[in-house]
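@channel anyone free to eyeball this complex?
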Amino acid sequence: EYGWTGVNECTFIAVKPDGVQRKLVGEIVRRFERRGFKLVGLKLVRVSEDLLREHYWDLRSKPFFSGLLTYMSSGPIVAMVWQGLDVVKTARKMMGETNPADSLPGTIRGDFCVEVGRNVIHGSDSVESAQKEISLWFGHDELQCWGPSSSRWVY
Ligand code: RTP
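replying in thread with the prediction:
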């Protein structure tokens, strides 16, 4: 049921090790909540190089590949799944460009980092890669289906 286009669309977002170490988790979660997206999965994980190799398989021939794996395995990551209308595309806009130097102020990278090799956040680049990444990083039982009907405590 996850990964559908439309209001049920889901994307995989990760606060990378530098983002966790710099205490940016709350700020990033806050931005997604306030934009109107729904949190359906969240965990703090330290992942193996094998998982990262699979996650970044398309980049395996790039010169920065091994440095990327070292960076991504250097500390815990906050892995999340966010749901909502056009969330894949909108999340990429909220993040800014891959290279923080090209990211506008107001975006996450434009506000919080300067270096491509320490760019704080990952977000899926298409609905198809979101589906792959969600199933790589999360089990079905780790994703929550919930709606406004259970919002009795929201005033
Ligand atoms: P991400 O997957 O992390 O959201 O990044 P992206 O799609 O915007 O960029 P991609 O080209 O897929 O690169 C993945 C991550 O690799 C690191 N990178 N380093 N020249 C470099 O040293 C270099 N280029 C890319 C970045 O951490 C980038 O986010």
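from a first look: The mean pLDDT is 94.
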